[in-house]
Amino acid sequence: MQRVSDCGNAPADVGNDDGDGGDGSPGLDTVSGAAPGNNGRGRHRGTGAHWGRPAALFVALASLGLPQAAQAQWSMPDERSTNQVVLELYTAQGCSACPPADAMMAELAMREDVIALSLHVDYWDYIGWRDTFASRFHTERQTRYARRNGHSTIYTPQVVINGTEIFEGFRVVRVMETIASQSTRPPVVELDVVRSEREEGAENGYRLDISARRVVAEEPPLELTSRAASAAPALLGSLTPDELPAGEPVHLQLVRYLPSAHVTIESGENAGRQVQYFNIVTDWDKIGEWDMRSPLEMAVTIDGSDPAVVIVQEAGQGEIVAAARLR
User: Fold this and answer.
1) For residues 131 and 270, is the Cβ–Cβ distance under 8 A?
2) 3-class secondary structure, 173
3) Band (20; pLDDT cuts 50, 70, 90)
């Protein structure tokens, strides 16, 4: 599989991925590649990176170099939206085509109807600048999306929306239109995530209480009648989740991210740039599976104070059917 962008020529093969990565690789349970059970945070603290909370939108749209039509599409959340939309931006500090997409994340990070996540890949590190947030896990996740959807290349910047819509990350108008379209999808799963206090004696962190249930679409009842003219019809209601045919379990994933970081890029194609990055993924773990036939109740204890996102995704890194965030 090739990887392409405006960032220079790359080797033709990005390698095979036999693991399940975000869907549960036995040897890579966090973004850092830490072995299971070591509580690795996957945090990249490279030279020139300054960590902080999101600030107000500080980049003038005109400075992004985007067309006026694209700039006009920047908007705040639509209160009519019924679904959280998950957007994954695959980016790299060493990619000269990525800054406009990274700037777009400044607006998306402030929207309540979008969970926008930046996943920095490592395959451009060789061209002069080692990305301070890059992870092999992110490259493998992007590669799985490409294979599932029959693509022969991966590239930066690339966006994946709800696991199904994949296109260039600099197409801002298309990003906004796709978010609006995806937000009107009929809900498949109702997901609720509540923060609880950590058990007594723990120094930091907290517990997430997760509950979910499958949404069964309301349908007109079926009517059963006898051939006898005097027989009263009997009505059959909609199927309950327990009566629905069983499919492959969906995967529950826990994502942690750093809200904001400022990076001075000292070499490579973006040498001299100072870039603000938003919603930088630091951990991506599979925490369970669910067959959706009965309501789900589970709890997860996590470390630190970084925001947490729970994602429900079809097996094989398919469609994201639900997501919830705690900032």
Assistant:
1) no
2) helix
3) very low
The hierarchical CATH code for the domain 2-186+252-288+307-326 is 3.40.30.10
Q: Which two tokens stand for residue 117?
A: 């996540």
| pLDDT tens for each residue of 148-184 | 999 999 999 999 999 999 999 999 999 999 999 999 9
Domain segments of the chain: what residues?
2-186+252-288+307-326
**All residues at 6 or more sequence positions from 151 whose CB lies less than 8 Å from its CB, including other chains:** 145, 166
Of the ranges 98-102, 200-204, 266-270, which one carries the lowest mean pLDDT score? Answer: 200-204
**pTM (two decimals):** 0.73
In the numeric block, the tokens 């700039």 are attached to: 71
Neighbours of 238 (CB within 10 A): 13
What phi and psi, each to the nearest 5 degrees, are found at residue 254?
A: -110, 125
The Cα 307–Cα 313 span in angstroms is 19
Of 118, 99, 90, 137, nearest in space to 258 by CA: 118
